[in-house]
Structure prediction request, 313 residues.
Amino acid sequence: MQLANYKTITMKSLLYKIALFITLSLSIQPIRACDLCGCSAGNYFLGPTPQFSKYFIGTRYSFRSFNTKITNDNTQFSKDFYQTTELWGGIKISEKLQGLIFIPYNVNKSKTDDGDKLNEGLGDVTLIGNYSILDKISLTKENAGLTQQLYIGFGLKIPTGKYSINTAEIVSSANSQPGTGSLDYILSTSYNLTLDNWGLASNFNYKINQSASDFRFGNRFSGTAFLFRTFQYNQNSYSPTIGLLYENLKASELGKSKIESTGGNAFLGAIGVETRFNNLSIGINAQLPITQNISDLKTKINLRGMAHLTYSF
Prediction:
């Protein structure tokens, strides 16, 4: 996001690069046997984006892992490992409006009681427009710099990704595809507050999913809040971060009927660090669940992680 007229590297570097979290995935109950999880393309998550003056371009990598077992039957299982390598960029269209693009490549691996499975390919491209409601810099009584920002956004997830499902196992095969086959809508808002070298970054997204091949992933809400502290060294900035993530996924549907044991919610904790060298930003973070109830406790979220390299100008 743009930070208007920042005077220091500290104020310019951190608001939208704190928590790069994509893709907490929730589960789907298949028609038969295993592949319960499939926690991939249907649950795309758009996190905060970096500050930039006019443009930014970069890449980020994330992984997610899950274990799934049928209740009271350990012979039916799925161990899923999903990876996304993404090209992202942004352009300032006007003083208050910016456009963003996200182009993912997904690699979805599963080890199940039916054997190993691999699906990979271009994912669904996402386009976002963000509008600045509030962008204010002021001073406290102690002459500390206080900054507040509020943005709202609307986006489209375009069905550019590979989506070739098995009609005999439509639910389980839909989960593991690089794309979802549907045009989906994203509503987002973010509020950020900084006081000198301390800051709080929050972001909320709601994704409205449409149907493809008579199957529809449940709508998804995501919220994040991250606390960070910036340290300066040799004109570079280093920012340790700690935060919380909450995600809720509604039940998916086949035809007009809700699918049993789909959807759920989870709280996660995250820790990471962001660094900035002139216009180049590097970040890494790890996320672990605190509480979770996914697919009626049939699926367990394991470690997630992300790293990014971004150039702003």
Summary: Residues 1-38 have pLDDT under 50 and may be disordered.
